[in-house]
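---------- Forwarded message ----------

FYI, see the RHBD2 protein record below. Original note from H. follows.
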Amino acid sequence: RGSMAAGWGRPPAATALTLLLSLGASGPGLLQGSPAAHPGALQPAALRAGEVHRLLTYVFVYEDLLSLTCGALIIWYFAGSFERSVGTVKHCFLTAVFTVLSGLLHLFLEPVVSRLSEVEDAKGFLPVAFAMLGVSTARSRMKRALCFGFRVPVVLVPWILLCAAWFIPHSSLPSNLCGLLLGEAYGLGCCFCLDLPESVGSKLDRMFPFSLLKRIPGLKYIPGSSAERRASESSKIIPPPGSYPTQSY
Protein backbone atom coordinates (compact mmCIF):
# COMPACT_ATOMS: atom_id res chain seq x y z
CA ARG A 1 0.00 0.00 0.00
CA GLY A 2 2.83 2.35 0.81
CA SER A 3 4.44 1.89 -2.59
CA MET A 4 1.14 2.50 -4.32
CA ALA A 5 0.59 5.71 -2.41
CA ALA A 6 4.10 6.86 -3.26
CA GLY A 7 3.62 6.05 -6.94
CA TRP A 8 0.43 8.10 -7.11
CA GLY A 9 1.63 10.95 -4.87
CA ARG A 10 2.85 13.31 -7.60
CA PRO A 11 1.19 13.58 -11.04
CA PRO A 12 3.32 12.54 -14.03
CA ALA A 13 4.72 15.58 -15.81
CA ALA A 14 3.21 15.07 -19.28
CA THR A 15 -0.18 14.13 -17.85
CA ALA A 16 -0.27 17.34 -15.80
CA LEU A 17 0.75 19.32 -18.89
CA THR A 18 -2.11 17.74 -20.88
CA LEU A 19 -4.56 18.78 -18.17
CA LEU A 20 -3.26 22.36 -18.22
CA LEU A 21 -3.46 22.55 -22.02
CA SER A 22 -7.05 21.28 -21.91
CA LEU A 23 -7.99 23.94 -19.39
CA GLY A 24 -6.22 26.61 -21.43
CA ALA A 25 -7.84 25.58 -24.72
CA SER A 26 -11.37 25.09 -23.37
CA GLY A 27 -11.45 27.67 -20.58
CA PRO A 28 -12.05 30.79 -22.71
CA GLY A 29 -14.95 29.15 -24.56
CA LEU A 30 -16.52 27.91 -21.34
CA LEU A 31 -16.24 31.37 -19.77
CA GLN A 32 -17.93 32.92 -22.80
CA GLY A 33 -20.59 30.21 -22.74
CA SER A 34 -20.27 29.59 -26.47
CA PRO A 35 -19.13 26.34 -28.13
CA ALA A 36 -18.24 28.44 -31.18
CA ALA A 37 -15.43 29.97 -29.13
CA HIS A 38 -13.51 26.66 -29.31
CA PRO A 39 -11.14 27.03 -32.29
CA GLY A 40 -9.56 23.60 -32.18
CA ALA A 41 -12.24 20.93 -32.76
CA LEU A 42 -11.51 18.58 -35.66
CA GLN A 43 -13.75 19.68 -38.54
CA PRO A 44 -13.24 18.66 -42.20
CA ALA A 45 -14.12 22.16 -43.46
CA ALA A 46 -11.52 23.74 -41.18
CA LEU A 47 -8.81 21.36 -42.39
CA ARG A 48 -9.70 22.09 -46.01
CA ALA A 49 -9.28 25.77 -45.15
CA GLY A 50 -5.69 25.05 -44.10
CA GLU A 51 -6.13 24.78 -40.31
CA VAL A 52 -3.98 21.66 -40.08
CA HIS A 53 -3.15 22.39 -36.43
CA ARG A 54 -6.58 20.99 -35.52
CA LEU A 55 -5.19 17.48 -36.05
CA LEU A 56 -3.33 18.07 -32.77
CA THR A 57 -5.44 20.60 -30.88
CA TYR A 58 -8.77 18.77 -30.97
CA VAL A 59 -7.80 16.58 -27.99
CA PHE A 60 -7.67 19.66 -25.75
CA VAL A 61 -11.12 20.96 -26.72
CA TYR A 62 -14.32 20.47 -24.65
CA GLU A 63 -17.72 22.06 -25.13
CA ASP A 64 -18.97 22.34 -21.56
CA LEU A 65 -17.92 21.95 -17.95
CA LEU A 66 -19.28 18.40 -17.65
CA SER A 67 -17.34 17.08 -20.64
CA LEU A 68 -14.22 18.92 -19.41
CA THR A 69 -14.57 17.27 -16.00
CA CYS A 70 -14.97 13.83 -17.61
CA GLY A 71 -11.97 14.57 -19.82
CA ALA A 72 -9.84 15.60 -16.85
CA LEU A 73 -10.64 12.34 -15.03
CA ILE A 74 -9.87 10.33 -18.18
CA ILE A 75 -6.54 12.13 -18.66
CA TRP A 76 -5.62 11.67 -14.99
CA TYR A 77 -6.35 7.94 -14.97
CA PHE A 78 -5.52 6.64 -18.46
CA ALA A 79 -2.76 9.04 -19.50
CA GLY A 80 -1.22 8.93 -16.01
CA SER A 81 -1.10 5.12 -15.98
CA PHE A 82 0.26 4.99 -19.51
CA GLU A 83 3.00 7.54 -18.77
CA ARG A 84 4.11 5.58 -15.71
CA SER A 85 4.44 2.42 -17.79
CA VAL A 86 6.30 3.82 -20.84
CA GLY A 87 8.04 6.98 -19.58
CA THR A 88 7.38 10.68 -20.19
CA VAL A 89 9.18 10.94 -23.55
CA LYS A 90 7.47 7.94 -25.11
CA HIS A 91 4.14 9.04 -23.65
CA CYS A 92 4.46 12.43 -25.39
CA PHE A 93 5.55 10.82 -28.65
CA LEU A 94 2.73 8.26 -28.72
CA THR A 95 0.14 10.81 -27.62
CA ALA A 96 1.02 12.93 -30.66
CA VAL A 97 1.02 9.87 -32.96
CA PHE A 98 -2.31 8.56 -31.65
CA THR A 99 -3.83 12.04 -31.85
CA VAL A 100 -2.93 12.64 -35.49
CA LEU A 101 -3.63 9.12 -36.76
CA SER A 102 -6.94 8.81 -34.88
CA GLY A 103 -7.98 12.18 -36.30
CA LEU A 104 -7.05 11.20 -39.86
CA LEU A 105 -8.85 7.86 -39.57
CA HIS A 106 -11.92 9.64 -38.17
CA LEU A 107 -11.95 12.08 -41.11
CA PHE A 108 -11.58 9.19 -43.55
CA LEU A 109 -14.54 7.28 -42.08
CA GLU A 110 -16.78 10.27 -41.36
CA PRO A 111 -18.39 10.50 -44.85
CA VAL A 112 -19.46 6.85 -44.61
CA VAL A 113 -20.68 6.98 -41.00
CA SER A 114 -22.52 10.28 -41.53
CA ARG A 115 -24.81 8.55 -44.03
CA LEU A 116 -26.10 6.34 -41.22
CA SER A 117 -26.31 8.83 -38.36
CA GLU A 118 -25.15 12.25 -37.24
CA VAL A 119 -21.45 12.30 -36.33
CA GLU A 120 -20.00 14.47 -33.57
CA ASP A 121 -16.84 16.40 -34.38
CA ALA A 122 -13.80 14.72 -32.86
CA LYS A 123 -12.76 16.55 -29.70
CA GLY A 124 -11.41 15.72 -26.28
CA PHE A 125 -8.79 13.25 -25.10
CA LEU A 126 -11.01 10.16 -25.17
CA PRO A 127 -9.84 8.78 -28.57
CA VAL A 128 -6.22 8.90 -27.37
CA ALA A 129 -7.23 7.32 -24.04
CA PHE A 130 -8.81 4.43 -25.96
CA ALA A 131 -5.62 4.06 -28.01
CA MET A 132 -3.60 3.84 -24.78
CA LEU A 133 -6.09 1.35 -23.35
CA GLY A 134 -5.85 -0.72 -26.53
CA VAL A 135 -2.06 -0.87 -26.21
CA SER A 136 -2.22 -1.84 -22.54
CA THR A 137 -4.80 -4.62 -22.97
CA ALA A 138 -3.16 -6.00 -26.12
CA ARG A 139 0.14 -6.39 -24.25
CA SER A 140 -1.29 -7.41 -20.90
CA ARG A 141 -0.39 -10.82 -19.48
CA MET A 142 -3.57 -10.87 -17.42
CA LYS A 143 -6.41 -13.07 -18.64
CA ARG A 144 -9.23 -11.39 -16.72
CA ALA A 145 -9.82 -7.96 -15.24
CA LEU A 146 -12.44 -6.29 -13.06
CA CYS A 147 -14.82 -4.11 -15.09
CA PHE A 148 -17.91 -2.53 -13.50
CA GLY A 149 -17.78 -5.10 -10.71
CA PHE A 150 -17.49 -8.16 -12.98
CA ARG A 151 -14.43 -10.19 -13.93
CA VAL A 152 -14.27 -10.28 -17.73
CA PRO A 153 -11.59 -11.26 -20.27
CA VAL A 154 -9.04 -8.47 -20.62
CA VAL A 155 -9.55 -8.30 -24.40
CA LEU A 156 -13.19 -7.31 -23.84
CA VAL A 157 -12.52 -4.47 -21.39
CA PRO A 158 -11.85 -1.76 -24.04
CA TRP A 159 -14.98 -2.71 -25.97
CA ILE A 160 -17.15 -2.61 -22.85
CA LEU A 161 -15.74 0.81 -22.01
CA LEU A 162 -16.29 1.93 -25.62
CA CYS A 163 -20.00 1.21 -25.20
CA ALA A 164 -20.03 3.02 -21.84
CA ALA A 165 -18.30 6.06 -23.41
CA TRP A 166 -21.39 6.55 -25.57
CA PHE A 167 -22.98 8.21 -22.53
CA ILE A 168 -20.17 10.76 -22.05
CA PRO A 169 -21.36 14.21 -23.21
CA HIS A 170 -20.23 15.22 -26.73
CA SER A 171 -18.31 11.98 -27.16
CA SER A 172 -17.76 10.84 -30.75
CA LEU A 173 -18.19 7.06 -31.06
CA PRO A 174 -16.42 6.83 -34.47
CA SER A 175 -13.49 8.84 -33.13
CA ASN A 176 -13.23 6.65 -30.01
CA LEU A 177 -13.40 3.53 -32.16
CA CYS A 178 -10.61 4.85 -34.38
CA GLY A 179 -8.43 5.41 -31.33
CA LEU A 180 -9.12 1.94 -29.96
CA LEU A 181 -8.40 0.20 -33.27
CA LEU A 182 -5.17 2.13 -33.64
CA GLY A 183 -4.08 1.26 -30.09
CA GLU A 184 -4.92 -2.42 -30.56
CA ALA A 185 -2.93 -2.50 -33.81
CA TYR A 186 0.06 -0.84 -32.15
CA GLY A 187 -0.16 -3.12 -29.11
CA LEU A 188 -0.17 -6.22 -31.33
CA GLY A 189 2.96 -5.02 -33.15
CA CYS A 190 1.30 -4.00 -36.41
CA CYS A 191 2.64 -0.42 -36.18
CA PHE A 192 6.19 -1.20 -35.03
CA CYS A 193 7.52 1.41 -37.49
CA LEU A 194 5.94 4.08 -35.27
CA ASP A 195 7.73 2.91 -32.14
CA LEU A 196 10.30 5.00 -30.30
CA PRO A 197 13.44 3.03 -29.33
CA GLU A 198 14.27 3.13 -25.64
CA SER A 199 17.79 4.38 -26.40
CA VAL A 200 16.33 7.41 -28.20
CA GLY A 201 13.97 8.04 -25.31
CA SER A 202 16.86 8.01 -22.84
CA LYS A 203 18.76 10.57 -24.94
CA LEU A 204 15.70 12.81 -25.22
CA ASP A 205 15.35 12.70 -21.42
CA ARG A 206 18.42 14.96 -21.27
CA MET A 207 17.28 17.38 -23.98
CA PHE A 208 14.90 20.36 -24.04
CA PRO A 209 11.96 20.47 -23.30
CA PHE A 210 12.13 17.24 -21.27
CA SER A 211 15.09 18.47 -19.24
CA LEU A 212 12.85 21.40 -18.22
CA LEU A 213 9.97 19.11 -17.24
CA LYS A 214 12.29 17.34 -14.80
CA ARG A 215 12.82 20.57 -12.88
CA ILE A 216 9.16 21.49 -12.32
CA PRO A 217 8.45 21.02 -8.61
CA GLY A 218 5.47 18.90 -7.65
CA LEU A 219 5.53 16.84 -10.87
CA LYS A 220 7.01 13.40 -11.40
CA TYR A 221 9.18 12.87 -14.46
CA ILE A 222 9.17 9.23 -15.64
CA PRO A 223 12.50 8.21 -17.23
CA GLY A 224 12.56 6.66 -20.68
CA SER A 225 14.76 3.73 -19.63
CA SER A 226 12.82 0.74 -18.28
CA ALA A 227 15.80 -0.09 -16.04
CA GLU A 228 15.62 3.38 -14.48
CA ARG A 229 11.86 3.04 -13.98
CA ARG A 230 12.32 -0.32 -12.24
CA ALA A 231 15.09 1.08 -10.07
CA SER A 232 12.88 4.04 -9.13
CA GLU A 233 10.01 1.75 -8.15
CA SER A 234 12.34 -0.57 -6.22
CA SER A 235 13.71 2.33 -4.20
CA LYS A 236 10.17 3.06 -3.03
CA ILE A 237 9.24 -0.52 -2.28
CA ILE A 238 12.39 -1.45 -0.34
CA PRO A 239 12.61 0.65 2.86
CA PRO A 240 16.00 1.74 4.20
CA PRO A 241 17.43 -0.41 7.01
CA GLY A 242 15.94 0.35 10.40
CA SER A 243 12.94 2.29 9.06
CA TYR A 244 10.51 -0.50 10.03
CA PRO A 245 10.65 -3.03 12.87
CA THR A 246 11.68 -6.54 11.88
CA GLN A 247 8.68 -8.74 11.35
CA SER A 248 8.31 -12.33 10.21
CA TYR A 249 5.58 -13.50 7.83
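H. also flagged this: The radius of gyration is 19 Å.
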